[in-house]
Structure formats: C-alpha cells, structure tokens
Amino acid sequence: MSRLREAVSEIxxxxxxxxxxxxxxxxxxxxxxxxxxxxxxxxxxxxxxxVNKTLDALLLLGMGINALSMSVLNIARVKLAIRSTTQQQAxxxxxEVLGIEDGIAIHxxxxxxxxxxxxxxx
Length: 122
Fold this sequence. Notes:
Structural class: mainly alpha
Distance between the termini: 32 Å
Shape: globular
C-alpha cells in the first residue's frame, strides 16, 4: 500500500506541472492495478470518488465500475456521459487509451468520444 501511495504522490507532483503527462501516468497506474480492482466491491462508490472530470467516468465505466460518488457539481455531466455511452463502447475506448503513449492524444481521444456522444462542457 505504501508503494501505491508513493506512486500516486509522484503522479500528483508531475500533474501539477504537466497535467497531461500526469493523466498518462494515472492511466498507466490503473492499467497495472486493474487486475486487483476487478475483484473489489465498488458498491460503496468509493472508487468513484476519483471522478473529477467526465473524461474519467468513461474510463471507469470501461473498467466495469458501476458505482460512483463525486462532487454534486459533476453529477449532471457524468450522468449524461454515462447515459450516452454503452459499457461496450467505454470498454473499447479504455482499450484504445491503454494503447496510447501520449497524454495529449489520450485527452483528444476522450474529448472526441464525448463530443460524438453529444456531451459538451466536460
């Protein structure tokens, strides 16, 4: 657990100066720990507390997370994104993201997916 905290701390430091690189690092970390999270009970919504942006919600949906908790300010946008995207589409999107090495390209792909789904202001 301490190694995970150290990794998250390092990602936060990088993200302050380079947000897109930080996002790329976060996706890579999720890729590494996903096998353990697949068996976690997400019914409490604890995993959803990481949802800061609508873009994040699509990736969590693709991972099979079905319970989210978040700031009330994000609920409407995230709800719209989830309702506009099937879990199969989100899974395909996640697989695409995991194959991309560039943080800017990841952001563009997720933004494009939201625009195609008719979600704006994310």
